[in-house]
Specification:
heterotrimer, A mainly alpha (about 300), B alpha/beta (about 400), C mainly alpha (about 375), B: about 400 residues, alpha/beta, Rossmann fold, six-stranded mixed β-sheet, 11 helices, 14 strands, disordered N terminus, C: about 375 residues, mainly alpha, two-stranded antiparallel ribbon, 13 helices, about 65% helix, globular
């Protein structure tokens, strides 16, 4: 039982990174913009956050720095895609490529740096409960913030007026424009917010998850976060669950290796990706289900009048 | 119709670029006159900009690294040795390096380029450079090549390696003495013989002080991926391991152990600073003795090809350092004993009887393993859980 | 202030000038970077633009590097023009390499020198198979092809690992993860002497011509393009979007697999875990910078290769970090995308905002574009003009 509790704890930790990034991308896509540059943004944010942590010793400033880095890159992306109407996929890819190289370049002086040892977090009292204690209550505050954020975003999207406007922009920017809403500015705001969340995810990896900076350390998590928004059919709660699913399978395959399970380790390593494809297929099977849920204007450029 | 603005724009862009380039080449000329002391951030690569007369100038040496100089592990150790080489031999040599050279077709181009730049002694620091180096060595018989961790040689190409398993054994001794759960964990990189050998040696070392020890292994399938290494380490801890070792290149495993209140070792370089509370010792590789010897040979004209060098504690290439105060005195004494025995050759790690984890005896009682046996290890010793990925190929 | 004003019709001159302007801007920024880093900018530019072409050996290396990029990008161009977003070309490259190696290892001592042809064919089939999975999942289950193809890249990497660490490991290789070195009969013939460039380069150029014909002179190509530009019109005309999907994916998968086969039977000569070199992703950039046109792709493949090789050389010549290559490539694409807006818009000085809105603005229908990179076209505005 102990092992299951520990597995759950590890899953929550691993999934939180994906959750932040995926929630940010969710907001992006709800406004109709696909930002394939998630990987690049997360990398630049990781180095920014790490540098901030090295210089100030404060984790929260580091998250802020990461968010800022993500937001700045996203703003540049947004300017190109929203005002100059460049192709979203190509621009996102360019951002990914640029971010990868730029973060490696800027991060060179930081590869030897180390952050001090950090206290482990736990919620007093709750952390000592049998099973649920170690499983749920010994996490970094960001894990809980991710959950709170999911609820907040769900509330925002479905219960607030601003969220309704955002969804409208994503479904039909022309109609929103006709109603007088500043579509382009709303989209830009969504893109910047999404970039900031991706930035937080990036900073979390370098400051909390591993306490290190090395180039390329995001290692594909940005792309996985992109996948998550789709297979969660753009609903925040499902995004969170998907993030945990992916994180869980990742940890599970290591666990299985450690137990000496007789499946080749390469196939076990494939598991998370195969699981993603499987869930994607299951969800997409019903075409009308997807069409109903997908913001209709994703990837398409918008031209005000 | 649209001509004016477009033309103006294009003209402006064109003139602007020309002006910029002209202005900057003015700056550039000033830079040419200052000698090649302009060192790039932080790594110090001597530039080939100060050409030495072919015959009597310093020996030009080039290094090809597979990872970034700042990885804190494998490449870092090589680069430290390069710097030690420079310090030792001063202006008799001139070194340079290229980092992150992929272990693929591109490597060949890099080696040829190094040779064409006048480098006469070229080091390739990872297994995957073997075939490209061989090809280039065949074409350039007057350039000397040194290949790390490989097995093919040529009249102008040597192979060199370090007995990392000795460091792993000594770490194992410490681990065996420190574990409370009798479960050790290893985060493995790639299932090549060297790594398997290290896992085995680690276990043998632990069993020498604590016969009840078991080892669990988890594979990351990469040399370097800090988030994955973190996850792997976490899963080992979840599985009950309280002392971890790694064969990967970053300090993520050590830091994860620190967060969980467990112990771990540094690998390839001294990693104490990354997690002082969790750090028990670091098994390090010191490539400097070999680099200095082979360079001196090259300078003196006594360099020979077709050599296999496998150096360990005896030659000063392997050491276990920064042993924590938490380690009890009797365990430390045992480690010192082993180290002394390795130094004078009286202690042999791989001495029979040794059984693999399927119960078969692989080394008979009284026999000591030779380098050939050690080079091809593809089994796990008793006490290690699981099967070697890729299986046994007898 | 500067305003962007839509053109009545896209400017052809800018179509050609835009990549050049983008390149110029990238060069300027690069020059600034060099100066900031304390390097001689002219030397820096020389390393990137002169050194890779200054000798026959250098040209051969350049051709060798550009060939796989070119081949994959040609297939991707067809894909992207059809609005099928195959981001997983890297995975198809890997599986092509695996398949090609499998065939190569069947060769015996007495196999003739023609054997490289089945080896390459194996590569093509492997890539097509991998892309076919993406097509199937999209066709039957509506699964988004971007994500499936991307996930399959990771799966392909592990598949490769499985083979080289397991069943295909060289029994005499001291347990190192690599296959045997392939026999000479399986190797793609070299073009000339000891230079590494092989006939794959010629094959690539032939492919360029073939693709040009396909896209611009055949009915099938027409269908593909209309399917991408205006799916509603395509449906109305009876063009099957299913055919488009399968054609685009199988074609691009096959090309990527061919590149993979060329890599293992050419410069590498064996299958190793390091076969994935990122060509599949770089080819996406090559395709875009080449504006999805076969001729443009030739130039952009050469340009990208110069950046790669230049980045390598910059390390040993100038002590610059390798990451600069990625920075330059990303910058180039950014500036290109930005400059492309000049095709559909022009920059004008406008005194005040009060002027009447330009007549019949080139507003887009919700679908497609004349040039897929620029999101405008000449279809009438929806609001009616």
């Amino acid at each position: 039982m102990d092992q299951v509790a520990l597995l759950i704890a590890a899953t929550l930790n691993s999934g939180t990174v994906l959750a932040f990034a995926a929630l940010g991308l969710l907001i992006n896509e709800r406004a109709g913009i696909v930002n394939l540059g998630a990987e690049g943004m997360m990398l630049v944010a990781a180095v920014a956050g790490f540098a901030a942590a090295v210089h100030t010793g404060n984790d929260w400033i580091a998250f802020g720095a990461g968010a800022l880095a993500g937001a700045v890159l996203a703003a540049a992306f947004g300017a190109l895609v929203i005002w100059l109407n460049t192709n979203q996929y190509a621009t996102g890819l360019a951002l990914s490529l640029f971010g990868t190289g730029f973060s490696a370049f800027v991060g060179i002086p930081y590869t030897q740096e180390k952050l001090g040892e950090r206290a482990s977090f736990e919620i007093p009292g709750l952390a000592d409960l049998p099973f649920v204690g170690p499983a749920f209550f010994r996490q970094h505050p960001m894990v809980y913030i991710a959950i709170a954020l999911t609820i907040a975003i769900a509330w925002f999207l479905y219960r607030s007026r601003a969220g309704l406007v955002l969804r409208a922009v994503g479904e039909s920017p022309e109609s929103a424009h006709a109603l007088g809403y500043p579509v382009r500015r709303i989209r830009l705001a969504a893109v910047i917010f999404g970039g900031a969340l991706c930035g937080v995810a990036g900073a979390y990896i370098s400051v909390v998850y591993t306490h290190l900076w090395v180039e390329g350390m995001i290692a594909g998590k940005g792309w996985i976060a992109l996948a998550l928004t789709t297979f969660a059919t753009w609903r925040p709660a499902r995004v969170l669950l998907g993030a945990y699913l992916f994180g869980g399978v990742t940890m599970l395959q290591f666990q299985l290796q450690g137990e000496g399970v007789q499946i080749s380790s390469q196939f076990l390593t494939m598991l998370p990706y195969l699981a993603t494809i499987l869930v994607l297929v299951l969800i997409s099977r019903n075409a009308s289900f997807i069409r109903v849920n997908m913001p209709a204007s994703i990837g398409k450029p918008f031209f005000p009048g | 119709m649209t001509g004016l603005s477009k033309r103006t724009f294009v003209q402006l862009a064109g003139w602007g670029s020309l002006a910029a380039i002209a202005a900057l080449s003015g700056c550039g000329k000033k830079e040419e006159t200052t000698p090649a002391a302009a060192t790039p951030p932080p790594a110090s690569a001597a530039m080939a900009a100060a050409p030495a007369p072919a015959a009597s100038g310093p020996l030009k040496i080039a290094f090809a690294y597979v990872g970034p100089v700042g990885d804190g592990g494998w490449t870092f150790a090589h680069d430290n040795a390069r710097k030690a080489l420079e310090k030792e031999l001063g202006d008799k040599i001139q070194t340079s390096f290229v980092e992150k050279v992929p272990e693929a077709a591109d490597a060949e181009r890099v080696f040829r380029d190094m040779a064409s730049q006048g480098n006469k002694l070229i080091f390739g620091t990872t297994f995957g450079y073997m075939e490209p180096m061989l090809k280039v060595a065949a074409d350039l018989p007057d350039v000397k090549f040194e290949h790390a961790t490989g097995y093919k040689t040529a009249p102008n190409m040597n192979v060199y390696d370090s007995r990392t398993y000795e460091g792993a054994y000594m770490a194992g001794v410490i681990a065996g003495g420190m574990t409370k759960t009798n479960t050790l964990g290893v985060v493995g990189s790639i299932p090549i013989p060297e790594v398997i050998r290290n896992i085995n040696s680690f276990t043998l070392g632990a069993q020498s002080v604590n016969p009840k020890v078991k080892t669990k292994v988890v594979w990351v399938n990469e040399w370097f991926n800090p988030p994955k290494e973190t996850e792997a380490a976490q899963s080992l801890i979840n599985g009950g391991a309280d002392v971890l070792m790694q064969n990967t290149d970053s300090s993520a495993v050590l830091q994860t152990a620190g967060k969980a209140g467990k112990y771990a070792f540094g690998w390839d370089s001294d990693m104490t600073a990354y997690a002082p509370n969790a750090h028990l010792a670091s098994s390090i590789i010191n490539w400097a003795p070999y680099y200095i010897k082979t360079t001196k040979d090259a300078l003196a004209g006594t360099w020979k090809g077709d050599q296999h060098s496998w150096w360990g504690v005896k030659e000063g290439a392997i050491d276990i350092v920064s042993i924590s105060d938490k380690v009890p005195a009797d365990v430390k004494a045992k480690v010192d004993q082993v180290k002394a025995g390795l130094k004078d050759g009286s202690f042999v790690i791989w001495k029979g009887p040794i059984t693999n984890n399927e119960g078969k005896e692989v080394l008979a009682a009284g026999t000591s393993a030779d380098d050939k046996f050690l080079g091809g290890i593809n089994f796990f010793v008793k006490g290690v859980e699981g099967k070697v990925p890729g299986g046994d190929k007898k | 202030m500067l305003r962007l004003e839509p053109r009545p019709e896209p400017s052809r001159a800018m179509s050609i000038a835009s990549p050049l302007i983008a390149l110029a801007i990238t060069i300027v920024i690069g020059t600034l970077l060099f100066v900031l880093l304390g390097k001689d900018p002219l030397r820096g530019l020389a390393v990137f633009f002169v050194e890779p072409v200054k000798s026959v050996y250098a040209l051969s290396e350049l051709a060798m590097k550009a060939t796989p990029l070119l081949i994959i990008a040609l297939g991707l161009a067809v894909c992207f023009r059809s609005n099928v977003w195959n981001i997983g070309a890297e995975g198809q490259f890997i599986v092509g390499a695996i398949a090609a190696s499998g065939i190569a290892m069947l060769a015996g001592k007495d196999t003739g020198n023609w054997y490289f042809l089945p080896v390459l064919a194996g590569g093509v089939l492997g890539g097509m198979l991998w892309a076919g999975i993406v097509a199937l999942l999209r066709d039957r289950f509506n699964a988004n092809e971007i994500l499936v193809s991307l996930m399959l890249v990771y799966v392909a990497e592990q598949l490769l690992n499985y083979f080289v660490y397991g069943p295909w490991k060289d029994p005499h290789g001291y347990n190192f993860p690599q296959t045997i070195t392939f026999l000479k009969s399986t190797q793609v013939p070299r073009l000339y002497g000891s230079y590494r460039v092989n006939i794959g380069a010629i094959g690539a150029l032939v492919a360029v011509a073939a693709f040009w014909v396909l896209l611009f002179r055949t009915y099938a190509g027409f269908q593909l393009q209309v399917g991408g530009l205006a799916p509603a019109a395509a449906r109305y005309a009876g063009f099957s979007s299913r055919n488009t999907l399968w054609t685009a994916l199988l074609l691009s998968g096959g090309m990527a697999g061919l590149a993979g086969g060329l890599e293992v039977s050419g410069p590498l000569g064996q299958l190793t875990p390091h076969v994935p070199a990122g060509y599949g992703f770089a080819a996406i950039i090559v395709a875009f910078v080449g504006r999805l046109h076969p001729l443009g792709i030739v130039f952009s493949a050469i340009l990208m290769s110069m950046f790669y090789i230049g980045g390598e050389l910059a390390q040993s010549r100038l002590g610059l970090p390798k990451s600069l290559t990625g920075v330059f490539q990303g910058l180039l694409l950014f500036t290109l995308l930005a400059c492309d807006t000049l095709i559909a818009y022009r920059i004008r000085w406008k005194a005040a905002r009060g002027g009447a809105a330009p007549a019949a603005p080139v507003a887009a229908a919700a679908d497609g574009a004349l040039n897929p990179l620029v999101a405008t076209n000449t279809l009438p505005a929806r609001e009616g003009a």
